[in-house]
Amino acid sequence: MKPTFYLTTPIYYVNDVPHIGHAYTTVAADVLARYKRLMGYDVYFLTGSDEHGQKVEKAATTAGETPLELADRVVKRFQALWERLGISHNDFIRTTQERHKKGVAHIFKDILDKGDIYLGEYEDWYCTPCETFWTETQLIDGRCPDCNRPVEKLKEESYFFRMSKYQDQLLAHIDAHPDFIQPKSKRNEIISFVKEGLRDLSVSRTTFTWGIPVPGNDKHVIYVWFDALTNYITALGYPEATDDYRRFWPVNVHLIGKDILRFHAVYWPTFLMAAGLPLPEKVFAHGWWTIEGQKMSKSLQNVVEPNMLIDKYGVDAVRYFLLREVPFGLDGDFSHAALVQRINSDLANDLGNLLSRSTAMAVKYFDGVLPAPAELNENDQALKKRTEEMIAAVEACLNDLAFSKALQAIWEVISAANKYIDESAPWTLAKDPALTGRLATVMYCLLESQRIVHIILSAFLPATAEKALASLGCGGEKELIGLTWGGLKEGAVITKAEALFPRIEG
């Protein structure tokens, strides 16, 4: 039976339009999912939309539609973008689906029956955009510490979750599982937050109706974060012990932006502890993108719209840039100049040029029919070894979610192959019929190295890799041939590759 791998993106809030941050998380998750499938895993990759809460209700009223009409309209934008970006998710969950509502009501009632949710009264400062209550001391100049907007004093009856009860248990879990929160700086941040003391958490609202009713008291709706986080198990069929739930939970990795780390590393694990359910293996919080050095914001009108980037530069160029430019976990800066530089240098010059040169020579010297190699000399062995070492390096990097480092390791092989052409000088070998055997070996090593590179790149640049593998005579067979050196067979038909990435001038 195949090993399993379950990964998730956050579910994206429908009161937002898809931007580069959403694309970043989802492309990273897609690369991981594709890579794990390539390595023989049975992968469950979940994304979706968060559709309840006061913000959605308010926005719908303003737009003169029902909250569900607004959600139906906006969710299509996310789904269409994921299709354009080549996202290979297995499931797309919406919090308005019955399967989800049933699971949320069940876990809420279960924790309520155990006595870890109780009815009380809440009075504090509330920020509507963040859907968060704050204490007086947490406010900054009387405003929300997260978004700097005004807050209002609210007093309402509320159900509370006994989060304080799980403080020590959560700290012990973090201590016993060093990889539970990544990267390390975020782990330290959460440890100090929890050590400051966890307060009980308000988990219901009475000031609006757009949400899942509290079981047995429909005057209250369940707090949007309690509702949203539960998607990770309701998608697998919880509360039923379905095959998917039994096989895939606990999740291998929740991929999230750093702004929602506290919800995933404090609230979610304590909810699961109270319900007696296994905790996630890893929560990984990546950084934010600034735009040309400035924070991305609607008011600055500098929100980068991914569809526009795809129209201008192509899907795989955007996927490559997002994961190559910045180490995953750190903040990064987006600029068109940096993207064009990556396309021209890494994709057009290095990757594309290598493939078109190599395939053109195979067509010119051997009529596009791959010859059998003779014994490898020192130079050939060095390229083979470099390629094989890269396979292990990429595996290690992707297990650490170090996407940028994985791409760097792949590009080192591309550089080595370009250098190998110059050192082997096939054009000189071709002039002497006595050296045809040597020329055959050079061509074989060159093309076989690229076959392995493009199989691994199929996780990052699926459309590009498909084109490249087709011109190398092994289209559609990457899972069958695998990553062992020697997969290209004598007699394979090689065709001259078109430019994978045309240079962008000006």
Written overview of the protein:
By secondary structure, this protein is of the alpha/beta class. Helix content is 49%, strand content 15%. Helix 5 (167-176) packs antiparallel against helix 6 (184-195). It contains 19 helices and 16 strands. The protein has a domain at 336-481: Isoleucyl-tRNA Synthetase, Domain 1 (Orthogonal Bundle).
Keywords:
six-stranded parallel beta sheet, 49% helix, alpha/beta, four-stranded antiparallel beta sheet, Isoleucyl-tRNA Synthetase, Domain 1, 506 residues, 16 strands, single chain
**Number of H/I helices:** 19
Mean pLDDT: 94
CATH fold topology of the domain at 336-481: Isoleucyl-tRNA Synthetase, Domain 1
Query: What's the CATH C level of the domain at 336-481?
Result: Mainly Alpha
CA-based shape:
elongated
Question: How far from one another are the termini?
Answer: 53 Å
- The portion of residues assigned to helices is 40-55%
The structure class reads: alpha/beta
The CATH homologous superfamily of the domain at 336-481 is termed Isoleucyl-tRNA Synthetase, Domain 1
CATH architecture of the domain at 336-481: Orthogonal Bundle
Number of β-strand runs: 16
Largest sheet strand order: 3-2-1-12-13-7
Report the radius of gyration as a whole number of Å.
26 Å
